[in-house]
Design a protein that fits this description.
Blueprint (H helix, E strand, L loop, with lengths): L5 H4 L19 H10 L2 H4 L19 H26 L7 H13 L10 H13 L1 H7 L4 H8 L3 H12 L12 H7 L27 H11 L3 E3 L2 E2 L4 H23 L5 H10 L16 H26 L1 H5 L14 H16 L2 H32 L7 H7 L5 H5 L2 H4 L2 H13 L3 H11 L5
Antiparallel strand pairs: 1-2
Helix pairs in contact: 2-5, 4-5, 4-12, 4-14, 5-10, 5-12, 6-7, 6-17, 10-11, 12-14, 12-16, 13-14, 17-18, 17-21, 17-22
C-alpha cells in the first residue's frame, strides 16, 4: 500500500478555494485557520455547552469552550514537538515547525464544535429517536438506506465537519475554507457512516462526515494524499493522532480535577492518582510546600499534563513511519508507559463522575428534551415543505412551531430542498445541534407550555 507524504499532508490549500495556499513567515495560513475558528459563532456557543457537568452553577467547572481551549493548548505543544522532529527527518515543503503546532492546535480547537446540547447524551438522543420514534420510522421510508445511517449512527464529529465546511460562512463554497491540513487533522474517523470498509483500528470506530459533505471531504483527502481504503473511507491523517491525544490528556487529567472541586473525589485519591502518572514522583517535590488543596491539585495536574505531552510526542515520533503507512490502530494514550494507570483513572472517572447521580439526572432529562424537540420540529418542517410543493396544507401548529427553526424561511424558498427529505432532516439537526444547553432548555420549556 502507498505511503503518505508530509509535504502533501501539510497542504495549505483551502477547501473550496481555487487560490493556492502560500506560507509566509509573519502569519501562516494555519495561524489564520486558528483565528477563524476562535472568532466563529459556532465556537463561541461552546461556552454554554456541557463538558461533563450539565448546567452547573459552579464558575470554576469547565464547559466545552474551556475544554476545547485547553485541548488546543495541549495540541499545540504536541504538534510543535512533533514538528521539530519532522523538520529534521522529512520534506515538509514550505511548512515550519510552528505550522505543525498551529495545525494540531486548530484541529483540537474544533474537535467538539459539532456537539449537540447536553454533550454525548444529545448524540444518543438523536440516534435513539431515529431508530425508535414513529415519526422517524415513517420518514426512513423516504430516505436512501445510506442516508438513514447518518442519523441512526448520528455523530457530533460529522456535524463538526459540516459546521466547518458548510454552515459557518455558508455564503461561500467550503464554509470557513480552512486549510486541508487542518480539516484532515480534525477528522479522527475519516469515513462515511455507510462505508463497508472502514479505516483499521480506532479510526474506524465512528464516522466523520455525512453523505451531504462526502465530496468536500474527498477533496480534503485528495489534497492531503490520504490513503484510500474504499470510496469515502481513508486512513487517518497522522496529526489526527495528536489531536486525539490532546483530547484524551485534557479530559482524563482535567475531568478528575473538576470532580474533586465538586466533592466527588477525595483529595487523597486525586493526589495518589496523579502521582502514579508521573514517571518520577520526585518531580513533585514542591508539593510538600503547598498547603491549599486546590493549589496542590493544580500543581500536580500541570505536572501530569507535561509528562503525558512529552511521552506522547516521543511515541508519535518513534512510530512516524507506521502513521504514514496508515498502520497504527490505537490511540497514542494506549501506547504510553503509564497506559495501565490511565485506564484506571478513566474507570474511576466513569464510576465517580460520569455516572454520578447529579450528572445522570440532568443528562436523562436532556435525553428526553432532545427527543421531544425532534418529535415537534421534524413533522412541522416536513408539513411546511409539503405545502410549498402543493401537496397539502400545513397546520397552524406547524406554521408556528416550524417558524422557530433557524433559516427555515430561506429553505422553504428552495424547491429542491423542499423535495428532499434528507436535506430537510439535516436542517432540523443543524438547528438542534447548534443550540447551547440553556437555550435548548428554554426553547423546550416554551414548546411544552411550561414557560412563555
Amino acid at each position: 500500500m502507498s505511503r503518505m507524504q508530509w509535504k502533501k499532508l501539510l497542504s495549505a490549500k483551502r477547501l473550496g478555494s481555487d487560490s493556492p495556499g502560500t506560507i509566509s513567515a509573519e502569519r501562516s495560513p494555519f495561524q489564520r485557520d486558528f483565528d477563524r475558528v476562535i472568532f466563529s459563532g459556532a465556537f463561541r456557543r461552546l461556552q454554554n455547552k456541557t463538558q461533563v457537568f450539565p448546567l452547573v452553577q459552579e464558575d470554576y467547572v469547565r464547559t466545552r469552550l474551556t475544554h476545547s481551549l485547553e485541548t488546543s493548548s495541549i495540541g499545540r505543544s504536541l504538534g510543535t514537538a512533533a514538528g521539530a522532529f519532522l523538520k529534521e527527518n522529512y520534506d515538509l515543503g514550505d511548512a515550519q515547525v510552528s505550522d505543525v503546532g498551529a495545525i494540531v492546535a486548530t484541529a483540537a480547537l474544533c474537535h467538539d464544535i459539532g456537539n449537540p446540547p447536553l454533550g454525548h447524551a444529545g448524540e444518543e438522543a438523536i440516534r435513539y429517536w431515529f431508530t425508535h420514534s414513529d415519526v422517524a420510522k415513517e420518514l426512513k421510508s423516504e430516505l436512501l438506506s445510506e442516508q438513514a445511517l447518518d442519523f441512526e449512527l448520528y455523530e457530533g464529529n460529522a456535524q463538526g465537519f459540516r459546521v466547518l465546511s458548510v454552515l459557518e460562512m455558508s455564503d461561500q463554497c467550503g464554509g470557513m475554507q480552512l486549510t486541508n491540513a487542518a480539516l484532515g487533522s480534525f477528522a479522527k474517523y475519516p469515513a462515511l457512516s455507510s462505508s463497508l470498509i472502514k479505516p483499521p483500528g480506532v479510526a474506524g470506530k465512528k464516522f466523520n462526515f455525512f453523505h451531504s459533505e462526502k465530496d468536500l471531504f474527498a477533496e480534503v483527502a485528495s489534497n492531503c494524499g490520504l490513503i484510500e481504503y474504499a470510496p469515502y473511507s481513508y486512513a487517518r491523517h497522522p496529526l489526527a493522532y495528536l489531536v486525539e491525544a490532546a483530547d484524551d490528556i485534557a479530559y482524563l487529567a482535567v475531568d478528575f480535577e473538576d470532580g474533586a472541586r465538586l466533592g466527588m473525589i477525595s483529595q487523597d485519591e486525586i493526589e495518589s492518582r496523579y502521582l502514579e502518572l508521573l514517571p518520577d514522583p520526585a518531580a513533585a517535590s514542591h508539593l510538600k510546600d503547598i498547603v491549599n488543596p486546590v493549589r496542590r491539585t493544580e500543581y500536580l495536574r500541570a505536572l501530569v499534563i507535561g509528562a503525558l505531552v512529552r511521552e506522547a510526542s516521543q511515541v508519535f515520533c518513534r512510530n512516524c513511519e507506521e502513521f504514514l503507512a496508515g498502520g497504527v490502530g490505537k490511540p497514542l494514550t494506549e501506547m504510553l508507559s503509564c497506559t495501565p494507570q490511565l485506564k484506571e483513572l478513566r474507570a474511576r472517572s466513569v464510576e465517580l463522575i460520569y455516572n454520578h447521580r447529579k450528572v445522570a439526572e440532568i443528562i436523562g432529562a436532556g435525553f428526553e428534551m432532545v427527543s421531544g424537540m425532534l418529535d415537534i420540529f421534524v413533522p412541522c418542517v416536513n408539513e411546511l415543505a409539503e405545502e410549498k410543493l402543493g401537496r397539502g396544507k400545513a397546520s397552524y401548529r406547524s406554521r408556528r412551531m416550524g417558524a422557530m427553526v433557524l433559516g427555515i424561511a430561506d429553505c422553504l424558498n428552495d424547491s429542491e430542498w423542499c423535495a428532499d427529505p434528507y436535506a430537510r432532516l439535516l436542517t432540523v439537526m443543524d438547528f438542534i445541534s447548534g443550540m447551547t444547553d440553556s437555550y435548548a432548555v428554554s426553547i423546550y420549556r416554551k414548546l411544552k407550555g411550561i414557560t412563555l
